[in-house]
């Protein structure tokens, strides 16, 4: 009887061990047993099927299953490590930003006479992605604009106005051509605004630009000449184009909610790329803070692929790839940053005549020229805090009026973002078409 019990226990133990091995075997291959009660997977998102040709493993369903298993396990691990919830909106604060706290927007100043905000203006300048065929034809006949294009032709070495009017769009969409085109037409729009409403230009108290538009804003504020600004953008565009060609990378818009675990998704994507794709230093980060429910991610294509295939695991509402070939505002632009620093060292700058917002800090630039130059170079590898800049510029008491806002340049993207960040301020928005 004792011997029988011993064999019975041994048999049950071996069966238990066999089940454990079988479970591990199934998990490693992402296979489910036929009898498991599992709800059917949701239909594939139209966003996850975009640009499949750029990813090597999209058609490998077994690989997809392993990736989803990894995403869920990694999410559990990262959540267990987190002792308290992380605030996504504060993830941009770093040591360099903390150093600038003493010089932030609301620093103590001597009291000034009250000025009705409704009599003042804010001028915004757009960034890359707003270009279109025909840009410039609405402003070419305003004072100084033809001369501005002639100067651009000499500095750039090609006919910029012809490129803006005739394209082709494949050329105009390239960073090499898009950034100078947006810069010149945006400042041409200022000439149009000055002719039609001179007070709007004279009463401007704050200016801000998105990405390349920050250089436009600094030129408008008298920090550097039009020619120097164009030379800076020429080098910037060429360097960013070259950096984009060095590595397979891209950008992706993600729409999020309160329950989204975006920071954990980014960390999991880095871990996946390091362990399974064998990328030594995986790069993916928030490149643009657009508004509370929308961020732009940028980095290695494989990291973006991981997010695209597993976005629902982390509570991301939907995703959309951007038609760009580079990971702008990430460390993958480091080679472009070095080239920009060399040019910035040669440019003579003056303190801005009006307040100019910095993309890197989300606060106003100080009058210190070395700090302005440093932040301009850092902008290539750090996030654009546009959402934070908007809140800072339009922060006011409940019953205080808002200034008039003018978006000078191609497209209405910044007006759209203003409406989503501050609808009351948007009521005084105007677009100066090019």
UniProtKB/TrEMBL annotation:
Keyword annotations: Fatty acid biosynthesis, Fatty acid metabolism, Lipid biosynthesis, Lipid metabolism, Mitochondrion, Transferase, Transit peptide
Gene3D superfamilies: Malonyl-CoA ACP transacylase, ACP-binding, Malonyl-Coenzyme A Acyl Carrier Protein, domain 2
InterPro entries, per the entry: Ac_transferase_dom_sf, Acyl_transferase_dom, Acyl_Trfase/lysoPLipase, Malonyl_transacylase_ACP-bd, Mitochondrial_malonyltrans
UniProt GO cellular component terms: mitochondrion
Gene Ontology biological process terms in this record: fatty acid biosynthetic process
Domain Malonyl-CoA:ACP transacylase (MAT): 124-428
EC number, UniProt record: 2.3.1.39
Bias (Basic and acidic residues): 79-89, 98-111
Region (Disordered): 32-61, 79-112
GO molecular function terms noted in the UniProt entry: [acyl-carrier-protein] S-malonyltransferase activity
Domain of life according to the entry: Eukaryota
Localization terms from the record: Mitochondrion
Pfam short name (any one): Acyl_transf_1
Pathway this chain belongs to: Lipid metabolism; fatty acid biosynthesis
Annotated family: Belongs to the type II malonyltransferase family.
Name of the protein this chain belongs to: [acyl-carrier-protein] S-malonyltransferase
Organism from which the protein derives: Adineta steineri
